[in-house]
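Format notes (please read before filing issues)

Several people have asked whether sequences and structure tokens are stored in separate files. They are not. Every record keeps both together, in the order shown below: the sequence lines, then the token lines. Line labels are part of the format and must not be stripped during preprocessing.
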Amino acid sequence: MLTQAQRAAILQLHAQKVPKREIARLLGISRPSVRQVLQANSSAVPKIERAEKAAPFRSQILELLTLCQGNLVRVHEELVAGGAAFSYPALTAFCRREGIGQEPPVPAGRHEFAPGQEMQHDTSPHTVTVGGRSYKAQTASAVLCYSRMLFFQILPTFQRFDCKVFLTAALRYFQGATERVMIDNTHVVVWRGSGRAMEPVPEMAAFAERLGFTFVAHEIGDANRSGRVERPFHFIEHNFLVGRTFADWDDLNRQARAWCDRVNATYKKHIRAIPTELYAVERLRLKPLPAWLPEVYRLHHRLVDVEGYVSLHSNRYSVPASFIGRQVEVREMFDRVEIELDARHIVTHRRILTPDQVRVTLPGHRPERGAPKRDPHPERVAILAAEPQLASYVDHLERRGRKVVTLLLRHLLRMLRDYPREAFLGAIEEASRYGLYDLDRVERMILRRVRREYFRLDEEQDD
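Then the structure lines:
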């Protein structure tokens, strides 16, 4: 089909008395085409007037589109079954020209941001391999909208605590805060409402106020509003995560930070600039962070179990034996766990990020096998100080006695103090020989010896 410019050229050359054959040769078109344009005497491209094969079935198409839930393949199958004789492309072309079942295209907008005005934050799920295991993790990303500076971390979970940890790390990386942080109506931050009517959770609102920014959310369905942070996720998945292995989560996020440093110093074709150079301008407009920024932590209260461990997210952390049975405060931070009995007794562990049901034991919390106890019972000390030869019997008594060790030692110490030494030691020697560790029976043995040796009656006494 000839264009409007070709038609105008034909009419112009004809007006200059150029023959039709010469016009066709100059423009590289056929002579019948030249004649048709001269007969029409117009440079406008004529509209194609032809009957639509699907036009007679318009009402049926509208009805079937509702029944088939907008699936044109099923609509075409039902029409053919009803006697229609046109192809599936003919149906889709008819629906496209008539605007049936299709949203009218809307041109994408463009958002401009001043330096320090906005930072966008979002998360996206990705599969990563850490320590030889595959995890479905969350990639948390933050981007300065003016300079396009990027910072991200990959975490096994992303809850409110993780969000505060990440945003704190991001603002430290950017060395300041923007006026607002754009989110995508995530339940981690949103308390109620959406878009302009969004209200953040009071905990998150207080966190934002301390750091000097406010949370805002884009309208539902307006994903382009957060396009600055959405764009890098594809880059992270198909560049950073490809072919990389990580020893642990700390190693992963160290490599992620180094990758951000390198990417931020690279020329970006779509903005025709280097983010770090634009950041030099934006850095002056960022709000300074507080002089003292408290570390984000999550507080738990736990009771130390009989094995001397504190459970947190199915992992168990050791504490000294003196903590057993007592309530402690557990502060869960990003990289460590602090277990506090009081201000003078605090235990610090490296935090296990995944619930792997592992035990973390510090060497000082468990004595070596065969090593003597550091804090023997005071009753044991008193017994061995008075009679050192009882050490073997006391050891067997602690292991084989049927009562609480403290009660057994108190009972033995009382007998040592109350009864004569010869009768007591003789009874203990006999009990040790026969493996007798029931102190009630041992005490009766002592009493029989006392009766025979100290209260002997004269059988030949006169009447």
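For reference, the curators noted about this record: The chain has five domains: 4-40, 55-98, 120-285, 298-365, 378-454. The CA atoms of residues 20 and 123 lie 67 Å apart.
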